[in-house]
Amino acid sequence: MGRVTFDLDDLRSYVTGIELGSFAKAAERLGRSTSAVSAHLKKLEQQVGTPILAKAGRGMVMTEAGETLLGYARRLLELNDEAAAAVRGLDLQGTVRLGLQEDFGETFLPQVLGSFARAHPRVRIEARIARNAELIDWVLKGQLDLSLAWDGGISTPFHQMLGQRQMHWITSPHFERASWRQGDEPLPLVMFDAPCLMRSAATLALDRAGIPWRIAFTSRSLNGVWAAVSAGLGVTVRTDAGLPSGLSRLPPGTLPSLNALGVVLHRAEDHPSGAIQRLAQIVADRIQN
Asked: 5, 46, 130, 179: which could join 134 in a potential S-S bond, CB 3.0 to 4.6 Å?
């Protein structure tokens, strides 16, 4: 059997279609025709030697081979993009001051900064984890070059909406739900100290549904919130960003539905340095994909 060499354009069409949930959207994102994307998928299946997608109702789902290919495809594309950035960005240098919401700090931060540091070793990154109000304030004061924050309705002169993340009710297997389900006691909440966008969303949704609640635990750090929820002290509201493996969403319909929360990248300047622009692009790509 001859050696198989995958085409990166084929892999990019496949990965983008899976991540967007639509190969028509992938064609639009990549600036290609839908027939070109279809040709990429057909070529991949021929190279793999087995279907990578199967029909499920009106849509398509990955086969076992497709799931395996997806993991490798992402790694190949990431390495390719990192190599291209390294070669093109050899002249990038300076300092970039980046601020992030704690939700993105544990998983997103190492991935983005690790990739950026390998591609641009002469750029120094100063990263800070903080709450929304602080992140926006520091950008406005010029103390940060970039801030990745939740959309709380406060804008800055130079910002970019990167998408949305659905908020969920989150709890642990140790939490006893029977008593408050029967109305015997208020729903215990584990939340950030006020002011907090997700705390406000939770209490507003419960008030509108006529469900009594109480604040059982507050923390200034996300680790404190996760620890209290893990201990079974109550439920919290967050997105899936950085969700610990031992915690899970409450089943739909258990509590009132919640809205999605926007993710915004704030910049201190309209035309920042090349290093800042490059990191901003990497952050935006990771969030949007």
From this structure: 130
Q: Considering the entire predicted model, what is its pTM?
A: 0.67
Dihedral of alpha carbons 131, 288, 108, 201, sign:
positive
Contact 286, 108 (CB under 8 A): yes
The tokens for 194 are 């006020």
What residue has token string 């990038």?
92
Is the CB of residue 263 less than 8 Å from the CB of residue 148? yes
Alpha carbons 191 and 205: distance in angstroms, whole number: 14
Quick: pLDDT tens for 45-65: 999 999 999 888 777 889 999
- pLDDT, tens digit, for every residue of 183-199? 568 999 999 988 889 99
Query: Distance between CA 11 and CA 31 in Å, rounded?
Result: 15
Can you say how many angstroms the Cα of residue 129 is from the centroid of all Cα atoms in its chain? 16
How many other C-beta atoms can be found within 10 angstroms of the C-beta atom of residue 270? 7
CB-count burial class (<10 Å; 0-12, 13-18, 19+) for 159: middle
pLDDT score of 167 more than 80: yes
In the sheet that 94-100 helps form, which strands lie side by side, from edge to edge? Answer: 123-129, 94-100, 146-150, 260-267, 158-166
- For the stretch 235-249, pLDDT in tens is 999 998 888 888 989
- H/E element holding 75? helix 64-88
What are 21-30's pLDDT values in tens digits? Answer: 889 888 888 8
